[in-house]
Design goal:
Number of helices: 11
Largest sheet: 5 strands, mixed
Helix content: 55-70%
Length: 350
């Protein structure tokens, strides 16, 4: 708030004050006081009033600036009153008290929402663990009674299992302090674990995986979360393989390399590339958005729009980078996803 704005806001009071001083000066002259003395007295009163306005402005502006600075410096602006001292002027005390009540109400509401979110997440986790038992039983029944119909049913159960796992990781995504452990892992071990878990989807889609160089690199990550991310990318390769020639197998190539980031900084990049239908150029920039299905998701695989969103969210929280390139037109169609492990989380293989 500028001083001009302060004067404008108090224009009515200032105008009445000046009018009273001028009227007083005329009255003094009317009672026989020397005109010069009356004017001098009026000038002194006006100067004193102006000085009082300046002091009042400085007191108010100091408090308001502190409120604004505190609010801008907090991730949770509703906690601003916790950083302020109660001012010594009436309007400031009223504002401070109002902010305090609003802050407490907001803090209580946030606490209630956190409790509800935690209880919901715990319920989802419990439900997921419970539903895994009948899913495992269904797989066992299918293995013991092989037939085309049972195999088809088992394939659908496998899809259900994938969605259940996706729900579990989504529920846990907001609290990595639980069931989360960063440690050294070999990329090849994680990739092979993801291939084993998603072998059925790749086989049914006739997508052949190929392991390239660099998978002996050791990085720091949570192996379960990283295996889930790689698994989601493999499932996408199976979902979006090219349907033009169903007799020919699709391919997904997995490799890693260590590259420079400049200024003596390095990173290990895990690349998962398929030769599927690719992603339209208009959709590439949005594929990591929550719930975004895109043209392919609506036409081919009935996507939920959560797979790549979870991949990005988990990568960000583990300090990893993720990027995607794709072509949906031309002879070199396909999608390439890269996971980048910065130098701080990477060890060069011996």
């Amino acid at each position: 708030m500028r001083f001009g704005s302060y004067l404008k806001d108090h224009a009515a009071a200032i105008t009445l004050r000046c009018a009273a001083v001028v009227l007083g000066a005329f009255m003094l002259v009317g009672y026989g006081t020397d005109a010069g003395a009356a004017c001098f007295s009026a000038a002194l009163v006006l100067v004193a009033c102006l000085a009082a306005d300046v002091l009042d402005y400085r007191r108010r502006i100091g408090f308001l600036r502190e409120v604004s600075r505190s609010a801008d410096g907090l991730d949770r602006p509703y906690l601003t009153p916790e950083l302020l001292e109660r001012p010594d002027f009436l309007e400031g005390r009223v504002l401070y008290d109002v902010l305090g009540r609003e802050s407490k109400a907001m803090a209580d509401e946030v606490a209630d929402l956190r409790t509800a979110s935690r209880e919901y997440r715990e319920y989802i986790e419990t439900w997921v663990h419970e539903v895994k038992t009948p899913i495992a039983a269904a797989h066992l029944v299918a293995q013991n009674h092989p037939s085309p119909n049972v195999d088809a049913m088992d394939a659908q159960v496998t899809r259900i299992e994938g969605y259940v796992e996706q729900a579990l990781y989504y529920a846990r995504g907001s609290s990595l302090d639980r069931d989360f452990s960063i440690r050294e892992v070999v990329l090849g071990d994680v990739v092979r674990d993801a291939l084993r878990r998603n072998a059925r989807a790749l086989i049914d889609a006739r997508v052949t995986p190929g392991l390239g160089e660099g998978l002996d690199a050791t990085v720091r990550a949570d192996p379960k979360w990283l295996s889930f991310i790689v698994g989601q990318l493999l499932v996408n390769a199976a979902k979006y393989r090219r349907p033009e020639d169903t007799a020919a197998a699709g391919h997904v190539r997995i490799s890693a390399l260590r590259r420079s980031r400049g200024m003596d900084a390095y990173e290990t990049v895990l690349t998962i590339a398929d030769d599927g239908i690719g992603i339209p150029e208009s959709d590439v920039s949005r594929v990591f958005d929550k719930g975004f299905t895109g043209e392919n998701g609506r036409r081919f695989a009935k996507s939920t729009g959560m797979g790549l969103y979870l991949c990005r969210a988990l990568c960000q929280k583990m300090g990893l980078g993720i990027s995607l390139e794709s072509r949906a037109i031309g002879p070199n169609t396909g999608t390439e996803v890269r996971l980048a492990f910065p130098e701080a989380t990477t060890q060069r293989p011996e």
